[in-house]
Amino acid sequence: MTRRAAGSARRRHRADRSARTRRLGAALAHLPRQARADLWPLLVTVAVVAVVGAGASVGPRLLAATADETVRVAVDTTAASDLTVTAPFTDDFRIEGRAPRDTALIVKSNASRIDGALPDDLAPLFAAPLVTVSTVRLPLAIPDGQNEAVLRLAYVWDGADAAVDWVEGGAPVAAAPAEAWSDDSAWPVQVALSTEAAAALRVGVGDRINVSYPKRPIEVTVSGVFRPTDAGDPVWTQDRDLLAPVTRGSGRTARTEIAALLSAQSLPDARLSLDPLDTSTTYTLAVRSAAMTYGDLDSIVANLAKLEASPTSLDLIATGTRVTTSLDHTLLAAQARIRAGGAQAAVLLVGLVATGAAVLILAADVLTRRRAAVLVRHRARGASLPAIAASLLVESLALAAIGGALGLLLAALVRPGPPSWPWLVPVLAVVALAGPVLGTRAARASDGRRRPADRRQRRADGRVRTVRRVALEASVALLAVAGLTALRRRGVTASGGTGADLLLSAAPTLVAVAAAMLAYRALPALLRGSLAIARRFRGSGPLIAAARAQAAGAAALPFVALVLATTLLSFGATLTQTIRSGQVTGSWDTVGADVQVRTGSDPDLAATARVLAAADGVDLATALRVDDLVQLVGARSQDRVRVVAVDAAAYERLLATTPLADAPQLARLAGEPGAETDDPVPALVSPGLAGEGGAMSVLWQEHTIPLAVVGATPEFASSLSPSASAGQVEDTVVVSAAALALAAGEPVEADTLWVTGAGADAAVAGATTWADSTVTSRAQWLADRATEPLTSGLILLVASSIALLLAFAVVTVVLAASASAPERASTQATLRVLGLRLRAAASVALGELAPAVLVACLSGLALGAGLASVLIGPLTLRLVTGQAAEPALVLPWWVLAALVLLAGTVALVVAVESSARRRERLGQVLRVGSG
């Protein structure tokens, strides 16, 4: 009996398994025919997957490429990025009284040591050392020269001696050996001059150059005159005055600098003729920006800091070795900008993926509605829920594979690179699971559920459903509040990398979803209000349309998806417009005027400003003095500041010609200076110094100037970038030039010029050659900023995201209309039976669809602008725009085009449906209604 029962159970189990297999096979065999019947929703799904997959792949690749290019551009456009090693000589050759003939070998050996001792992470980033052995500048007289002139002796080597063509004579040679050396003896030194230098000094081969050295006489003899074989050779980059005399400054401060070329043979003589401290050796390692990537920045900065802190790691035995570079500051500034831009892009990428996922779920819902009858039939014929889920899963996996492959192919065509699986996998997962879950749920609903007869039980069940819905919405709202709070407190770049962490990046998306749920709950009240308004019209069309809109309502998922798409669209558009406007403000913050000129101190610069102010197209021009790295006395946390001496009244007039904010505090500097030189000079100081308190003084031009703090520095101080040698100067002191001159007892010669007006560029370009000056044009700054990799890449990514979000919004409207199309068709048939014309029925359909779409769109556009206004600070847009402060919000009017497009989409859907209804005959409509 037991064996018989066991065998019967086994047979029943095999029969059940066989039946399940047959049902699963039947369901799978039905897939192709079912797919052909529902072709357009499937194509929409594949298209959305492909577009989202392509965007999710291209976005991170674009960010990575933009980050690398931004680093390289920052290094190429920043002065003093090269690594400079200064090492003194270690031997004391004067004890033996003979020339150190191995000097060239020493410096070449040191260059090899430095090159080999670089850390592995830094070695590929720098070229071989360029050696420069240089003396102090020795005064000399230029025939008929009006300017002060100096001569410097230099030896350069970058793996080989400088290549030159000899016009006269030849290379310098070593002087004859001397029996002994004394302070009274003049050691002969042979040098070579460029053709331009020889012409300026009016000397030739065999002539002596009359230089003065206060410690002993020097005999400098010209051995040859040369032309460089290649003037662009890097060996000349650090010593351009070896090729031609250079005049620095103007007026009384002008000075002509000439350099004479030493050879390896004459270099020891130059060392012996001067004191040891008057000869320096510099090894310059040019940076190779092409070898830099964003991912290596942390390691590069850390290794540079170690080198600067411990130069002995370069295997040089000299105790006074110094390593200097501004590359670390440049890389840190670039890293901050990249993190800001990457985090801003990550916010939009998260929103794009979330919106795409919502559209895919909506497409799966539309597909399930179309197949509801088929699923019910399969269930009635004995198909199990696992069999139905498995068949739908096979179809969903196929859609995910096809759409994902198309997306990766499209991404490879746009920007090749590895797949970004963290962005792509969520989209594929949504496609793979949405169809089976919704389809199984629809099939399960066909089993039928008995409603309790007890009214109290029905109410209890309703309360349970309400609690679940409220709990879900409350969870989303709490998560959105947490993300938004964290984002505002920590900033979007808090987690580092090219973007922020998931919660921070998803905060705007979560806020949009939470706000969409809230707006959806308020939609019935708005529709009731539209019904009350429609009752005031005489015709029946508006009333019927409002009644249908209230009765039909709006599906939650399409409404939330539409609000999400339009919110992120408005958010991205507002960011784009704010960045573009902020760059214009940033150009004023950075340059301070239409043109800024930084030159050496020049007593004639004030007169030049008056000449420029009278030029055509120039509004105003003013001169000022800027000194970086001035010693500050009395502050506890800062010992170096930038001192700016201005003509307060002149600058106030110049401010009136610019969009920069007024600086009324400048009036506190414009009064008459005190009669006594010991009186404190009124000063405006940075906020960091204002909180120090106590007496404060600056050591300016060897004068101790006491300060009286009367206010905070104006915004223009941010446009005065420090010189390359000054490094990072954070705090600024602004004083009156007249008061500073009185306190110091000597004139304050200007070195900076600001010019405003449409013709400022042309006037400055035509005024003088501005030798050895830095001319910064605001128009050029704007052009450079607009085309730089970070800005252009971010704008491109935002513009692409806006276009995709707009497309998703249109698809959402079409899918939502398609989901409710059968019910709307039945309603229109009934209305036509009751005598309503086809055109009036189309108007009713338009009134049924349009309110929910318009409410969702307007809510999203307003929410996006509000989010942008709240998140401007946390998104650190100023790092992208180049402003001193966060940019002001700018709302783009053209974002309303989305409202027009979505309204047009609704009208087009209604027109297509009306065209389909036009071909129906009234008899058919009556039979449908009676059926």
From TrEMBL:
Transmembrane segment boundaries: 345-367, 388-411, 423-445, 466-487, 502-523, 543-571, 794-819, 840-873, 893-912
Subcellular location(s) per record: Cell membrane
Domain ABC3 transporter permease C-terminal: 802-914
Claim: GTP-binding is one of the keywords in the record: no
InterPro entries documented for this protein: ABC3_permease_C, Macrolide_Exporter_MacB
Mode of membrane association: Multi-pass membrane protein
Family matches, as PANTHER family: ABC TRANSPORTER PERMEASE YTRF (PTHR30572:SF4), MEMBRANE COMPONENT OF TRANSPORTER-RELATED (PTHR30572)
Name of the protein this chain belongs to: ABC3 transporter permease C-terminal domain-containing protein
Organism: Pengzhenrongella sicca
Source species taxonomy: Bacteria, Bacillati, Actinomycetota, Actinomycetes, Micrococcales
